[in-house]
Structure prediction request, 315 residues.
Amino acid sequence: MKLVTFQTVGDPRLGCIAGERVIDLTLAYETMLQEKGRRKARALAGVMVPPDMIDFLDGEGDALTAAVEAFEWVSGEGFAVGAVRGFDIVLPASSVRLLAPVAHPRKIICAGKNYWDAIKERGEKAPEEPKIFSKFANSVCGWDDDVIRPRMTRELGYEAELAVVIGKRCKHVPLERAYDVIAGYMTYNDITAGDLTKRDGQNTRGKGFDTFSVMGPYLTTRDEISDPQVLGVRLSVNGRVLQDSSTCHLVFDVPRLVSFCSEVFTLEPGDVIATGSPRGLAKDYDPPAFLQPGDLMETEIEGLGSCRNRIVEEV
Prediction:
């Protein structure tokens, strides 16, 4: 299932993509319960399939089971279902705005130096254990939102990455159970002010600006990705391909990263773990390929969709 956070009017809603349609999963579940004669269908739907992504992920397996049930019911009706209190259950995708799937993650954890091809390109030594750093929720940027180049930097870079979204509260997760705590995966871009990270000797400022965590367009649930270690990673700017690799080059794979992070933090539903970026960073080109206002950046992870973001100057 491809889960989305979408907006028409009012507050953002939880939905899923079905071809050229978006299904409001909360309203679908409510209507399904009403069709089955269940009492207090609206209240029960709000608990089982809440319209907020974090609340939904907090429900863990029960929420996903209910969402799948609602989707299958709508599909069984041929997507020809009505409206609830004036709100359509099935909407044309072109009529809604897709926001970042996880708009307010509790934690964004990023891995550095985690691709063999990038390490080889720079002549570096692979780390003996994962190198991680954090970003903040203010940096979240939707799949087609503008990315702001701050006044502080003139060396704005990109980093196409596979992102893992946690689906269960957990701590000290063994490798063999790592997939059990994953809700799904997203396309992610770790925007970086390279001159600031170099000047500071750490990542907080250079990676922490608003719009520096591009994610979306949807959260693909774990069951749809049989092996996250064989996904293509691709990034282009104005049609020029600058990164073209695969997650098969990860130094520390998805289970290792999840297990390692859980030794440090209590992981919670909605936490995002970005797995690092392959070769082809802007600073490694000659001349450097730093992002400029007006550039169109496209980030794609195989099976997870593409993000398209225009670079704009900070006002």
User: Anything to note?
Assistant: The radius of gyration is 20 Å. Helices lie at 25-35, 41-48, 53-58, 60-76, 116-122, 194-200, 254-264. The first strand starts at residue 2 and ends at 7.
